[in-house]
Design a protein that fits this description.
With 270 residues, the chain is mostly beta strands. The chain contains 2 helices and 16 strands. The chain folds into 2 domains: 29-125, no CATH class; 128-251, no CATH class. It comes from Nocardia aurantiaca.
Length: 270
């Protein structure tokens, strides 16, 4: 075995260990046990303290005297009530109750509570993320071409009626199976570029909604590296309680990309 091969094997092992650590986070995506959409009328959520409702801009929670202190926001107990204003499409605001985390989110103008529990059965059952063996065939170069101005690209979501708005900075042209294909690229060269894509394996051996592939930083001439062996699942591949985007139409490849992470819940894909 050459030194290069050894280094490559070590990099692959480190990457897979990093992904496993991501999946095992005590309050990460595999800890989700519920997603509760809120209406305008006060309601209780099974197993949670407080009464919850949403108006056009905020989420309101109130607690009875016997529940005082069972919920905390920014480390301070909620004694009677609180108003929370999560950002559209942003990470949720965090309310704690015991070991659990209530993530208050806003998606397409709707508000929801996403419940993280370190005792989640999904997290307890996790062993590994299935993945294709790495294959150098799927390490290819492409040409990144920035747009004159960044664009907002809207895609659907795995939850019907929701929309995701992505900042698209350009496109990447890559040759796969002898055909040049152009994909929409999200992110920015300064903070990292990525694509969301599907292919002929999606919904068969890989997750059906989309997979994500990070691109290398572009060279001066726009050359980037795409290592499809490092295509990863979105959180929705692991749980029904996420609201992940779908791949844009331009990034739905007609060929089978038999590389990267496979569907951890075969038969439950979007």
């Amino acid at each position: 075995m050459t030194a290069t091969a050894t280094a490559s094997d070590q990099q692959w092992a480190a990457f897979r260990a990093e992904r496993a650590d991501w999946a095992r986070q005590p309050l990460g995506w595999l800890s989700l046990t519920g997603l509760h959409w809120l209406g305008e009328q006060d309601e209780t959520i099974d197993g949670l303290p407080g009464r919850w409702h949403a108006d056009g801009e905020n989420v309101h929670v109130s607690v009875e005297s016997e529940e005082s202190g069972l919920l905390s926001l920014d480390g301070a107990p909620i004694a009677s009530s609180a108003v929370l204003t999560p950002g559209e499409g942003a990470p949720g605001l965090e309310v704690r109750t015991g070991d659990r985390l209530i993530e208050v989110i806003r998606r397409t103008g709707q508000f929801a509570l996403r419940i993280h529990d370190p005792a989640s059965p999904t997290l307890a059952a996790f062993t590994e993320i299935p993945v294709y063996p790495p294959d150098p065939k799927w390490v290819v170069t492409g040409l990144f071409e920035p747009f004159d101005e960044a664009r907002v690209v809207t895609t659907g979501a795995v939850v019907e009626g929701l929309r995701h708005h992505h900042n698209a900075s350009g496109s990447v042209t890559v040759t796969l199976d002898g055909v040049a294909r152009r994909l929409v690229v999200f992110g920015s060269p300064a903070h990292g570029l990525h694509v969301l894509f599907t292919d002929a394996t999606s919904g068969v051996t890989t997750y059906g909604g989309a997979r994500r592939l990070d691109l290398s930083e572009p060279d001066a001439d726009g050359t980037v590296l795409l290592d499809f062996n490092r295509a990863v699942n979105l959180p929705c591949a692991f749980t029904d309680y996420a609201t992940c985007p779908l791949a844009p139409a331009e990034n739905r490849l007609p060929l089978a990309v038999a590389a990267g992470e496979q569907d951890p819940r075969k038969g439950h894909s979007a």
